Amino acid sequence: MEIAEPIGRMTLFGPEHLTALAGIALGAVVLVVMARRTRGTRTELRITHATGWALLVVTVGWTVWGMMPSHWDIGQSLPFHFSDVLRIVTAIALITRAGWAIAITYYWGLTLNLQSVVTPDLNYMQNPELEFTVYWILHALAQWAPIVLVWGLGYRPTWRGFGVAYVSALAWAVLAATVNWATGANYGYLAQAPAGFSVLDLLGGWPWYIGVEIAVVAVVWMLMTLPWSEPERLTRAPVVDCWRCVRRWDGTPVRPRGRASA
Description:
Helix 2 (42-67) runs antiparallel to helix 3 and helix 3 (82-96) packs across helix 6. With 262 residues, the protein is mainly alpha-helical. The chain has helices at 15-38, 42-67, 82-96, 99-109, 112-118, 128-152, 159-183, 208-225, 231-234; strands at 8-9, 123-124, 155-157, 246-248. The chain has 9 helices and 4 strands; from the N terminus they run E-H-H-H-H-H-E-H-E-H-H-H-E.
């Protein structure tokens, strides 16, 4: 199947990219402060619900827009990139606070989505201004959500949450690879590396970087779980979902064991 050629491409670490990075970094700090101030209140629920629904509506609308006959491109229009499904899961996490969704949002958002933020493969196909704006809005929300949920609202992933996120990533990779085989596309960058520089360039050429990435992701996600698995930190963070994927800390300082009360 024929894949359309882009009409332009965002310059990596150019002015537009650096501005987007600065905005995401600043926004993360501001949102964490706001989240801590509203944690446990109705305002928290109203804001996260509204954000989740907004993300879901924009995601679905952008997917439908890409599938319209005038915009159709087999290499871009199907929602089989990791970031495509991550946005749906992130919206579910914000709306429902389902533990499995929060866990996937945390692990995928702070690694797989981060790769799309730091080294974006942003090709312009028809409307550069619109495509730039939507790309960064969607990726910024997927980046802010896990930061706010964990450091702002107190959710802590468990080892079971790590397992759910990792198995889900492997399953999605198999699905994306199958779509690539059938269409000649490159969803998930499983058929070849991005045209520009990316983290995958540091992991060896295709297809070797796929195996290396699977191993590296496992190690990195384990390290991302360790800070929240210490018994001292979990004493005030009960499991809050039936799958036991996340705990939630209420913000109360935990006194180290073995010390007398003042």
